[in-house]
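Journal club prep, notes for RB
We'll compare a predicted complex against what the paper describes. Inputs for the magnesium ion case:
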Amino acid sequence: MRLQDNLAKILIPSDRLQARIYELGAQLSQDYGDTRPLLVCVLKGGVMFLSDLSRTLSIPHELDFMAISSYGGKRVESSGVVRILMDLNTNIEQRHVLIVEDIIDTGRTLYYIRETFQARNPASVKICALLNKPERREVEIPLDYVGFDIPNEFVVGYGLDFDELYRNLPYIGVLKPEMYS
Ligand code: IMP
Ligand code: MG
């Protein structure tokens, strides 16, 4: 089986992804300067983005990881009920925290993570999302850095999965609707 055969199209090819990530990295380097931000990857979807983004940064920064699960939703939709499976190793009090996420859909997952972090008295909490589906938003959430606004289609690749597959594709593709309907 070839994963590519299950895609309707490639939405964002690899070179466009990398070019945009380079721009985001330049912006972040300028904005954070010598504040030694902590980049938090939300596993598993954010892992490709975090590792490429980190390598474009010219400033000192730290990395940490967090794993969450959302309950009860269908495989193509998050339920908004979020549980922390693995918490940060870092004490974020007085730290500048940048949450690095693959995609903002309803916004519920990030809303929860942001609230959780804010209760720990960080110096700041900002969000950097590779992809944003504005049409699907259900909760208001400030997106400080966004790679691409995309239409309301289910996408896979570059960390994003369907049923745990497709994360390894180096581009963002649209899954054929018959794959999940
Ligand atoms: P939210 O809580 O609805 O914003 O959902 C965010 C999470 O749902 C993301 O971190 C993804 O894991 C997943 N998700 C949302 N849309 C897609 C998609 O198009 N493809 C793959 N995963 C998605
Ligand atoms: Mg995710």
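Talking point for the session: The pocket of magnesium ion (ligand 2) is lined by residues 42, 45, 102 (CB under 6 Å).
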